[in-house]
Amino acid sequence: MAIHLHKGDLPDGLDLGPTVAIDSETMGLRLGRDPLCVVQLSSGDGDAHVVQLDRPAYDAPNLKRLLTDPKVLKIFHFGRFDIAMFALHLGVTTAPVYCTKIASKLARTYTDRHGLKDVTKELLGVDMSKAQQSSDWGQAALSPEQLTYAASDVLNLHALKARLDAMLAREGRTDLAQACFDFLPWRAKLDLAGWEDVDIFAHS
Questions:
Q1: What is the pLDDT of residue 130?
Q2: Which is more confident, 23 or 127?
Q3: Can you give the pLDDT at residue 161?
Q4: What is the pTM (predicted TM-score) of this model?
Q5: Are strands 19-26 and 36-42 parallel, antiparallel or unpaired?
Q6: Taking the CA of residue 92 as centre, how many other CA atoms within 13 Å lie in the half-sphere pointing to its CB?
Q7: What is the pLDDT of the chain when averaged over all its residues?
Q8: What is the number of domains present in the chain?
Q9: Is the peptide bond before 185 cis (omega within 30 degrees of 0)?
Q10: Domain containing 80 — which CATH number?
Q11: Which residues of 177-203 are buried (b: 16+ CB within 10 A; e: fewer)?
Q12: Going by C-beta distance under 8 Å and a sequence separation of 6 or more, which residues neighbour residue 61?
């Protein structure tokens, strides 16, 4: 595994292929309060690209181009949050997308454990460390431990997608999952508009 650290943006000419795993790191989980600091990506080849964003300018045209490229499928785990952060700070609507957490909830109905660590452990036999999850992602120099953690969050998403796709097909829920993925950027926009804690489909 190689981890490539990029300051500010992805390098010119970098081609990560038609399907890219993406995650982000922030200073917290509150939209509007906590800034976006890091975006990590993998093409599924075992390498990871970690972009340490230039705040508050967020001048990252290559990254923005990738996020909005209609020919590149972006894989997330709980993409709702990342997509909202990208809309808020980078000013882009990320699409098309796939979310392994949504896929897990639709396919793995025998459990309520849908966190990335749990899904990866069961489906791939990989035990992920979450020790650096709550660390200072806004500092000027990221530690080797932070870079390793950031990379680990995207390195398994392609394999997870393949396993979950098979389970969704087996259970006849592929179309349902796709409809959820298509709606995800709109769910993120609802979050940003103030409906993050409201189920608008509920009766009350």
A1: 65
A2: 23
A3: 98
A4: 0.95
A5: antiparallel
A6: 20
A7: 96
A8: 1
A9: no
A10: 3.30.420.10
A11: beebbeebbebbeebeeeebeeeeeee
A12: 9
